[in-house]
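Tokens in:
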């Protein structure tokens, strides 16, 4: 089951310790020759420079094709314009364009309301200079009115100029296949890459999943609960489960896989070792 490209997602480190960890992780994951790596972006400005610094570092010190995430919520057109200029100057060719989520308590929604408006802005300012990836939600975005409206909003991002999509993570392959079928029926032709979240810590996974609306199937939750603090068994079970998901996605036509690494190498490598 070899042959599909991988990409790896990192978050921007803020301390020396976190920077050293990202360097170790990047070194280890390099062996898998990712198509590109990406770096997340915190809405509201707090990690503005962390993302660009990390992208520059991943390019210059590790030789990766590195793509910044760029979210529009909480930002002005001018701030986004400056960031785009900076990314162009650094030599970035790919951007993951998102609406983002405002941290609770932060009031100002920003000049652009939705990712589709951000894509229109990027295209208006820079034409085709950037390859634009967008977010996709096989289990439906948690704030959407309903699943069909959400699909239409997804299509609006493609019509605005998105070149590819990366999904929110999921553990039910059928959700992905149904999503791909549904958007193909709407005329969407761009690649839709599954986002893969390796499992190594159930408590953390549960917290993330509640926040982003990703479902952990009941049987998986029950099994992980039963394994409790037995860290090795949780990792083994998680790696087998996620590798089986990847195999199914590849067999069903997924064009590549995007791993949410959380800046750790082991959980992702344990999955890849079983996939290949
Ligand atoms: P949008 O596509 O704008 O959609 C957001 C919601 O608005 C949906 O419910 C949609 O149905 C609805 N909507 C869209 N258009 C309209 C319209 N015209 N009228 C009414 N409703 C509409 N967050 C970060 O802060 N930083 C990151 O780095 C980051 N990286 C991510 C990477 C990936 C691959 C994914 C899948 C998500 C990432 N996120 C990140 C999370 C993302 O920002 C949130 O899920 C956010 O809530 C939605 O972003 P979006 O770009 O999908 O929004």
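Residues out:
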């Amino acid at each position: 089951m070899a042959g599909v490209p991988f990409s790896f997602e990192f978050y921007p480190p803020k301390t020396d310790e976190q920077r050293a960890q990202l360097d170790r992780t990047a070194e280890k994951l390099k062996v898998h020759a990712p198509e590109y790596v990406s770096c997340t972006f915190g809405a509201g400005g707090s990690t503005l420079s962390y993302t660009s610094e990390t992208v520059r570092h991943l390019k210059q010190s590790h030789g990766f094709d590195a793509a910044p995430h760029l979210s529009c919520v909480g930002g002005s057109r001018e701030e986004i314009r400056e960031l785009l200029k900076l990314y162009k100057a650094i030599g970035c060719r790919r951007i993951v364009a998102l609406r983002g989520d405002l941290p609770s308590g932060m009031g100002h929604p920003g000049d652009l309301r939705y990712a589709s408006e951000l894509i229109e802005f990027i295209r208006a300012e820079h034409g085709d200079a950037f390859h634009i990836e967008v977010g996709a939600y096989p289990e439906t975005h948690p704030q959407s009115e309903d699943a069909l409206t959400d699909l239409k909003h997804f299509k609006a991002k493609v019509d605005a100029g998105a070149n590819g999509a990366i999904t929110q993570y999921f553990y039910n392959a059928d959700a992905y296949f149904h999503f791909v079928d549904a958007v193909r029926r709407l005329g969407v032709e761009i690649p839709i890459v599954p986002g893969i979240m390796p499992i190594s810590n159930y408590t953390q996974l549960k917290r993330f999943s509640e926040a982003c609306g990703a479902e952990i199937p009941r049987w998986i939750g029950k099994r992980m609960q039963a394994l409790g603090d037995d860290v090795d068994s949780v990792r083994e079970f998680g790696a087998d489960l996620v590798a089986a998901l990847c195999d199914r996605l590849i067999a069903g036509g997924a064009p590549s896989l995007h791993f949410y690494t959380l800046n750790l190498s082991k959980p992702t490598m344990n999955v890849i070792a079983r996939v290949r």
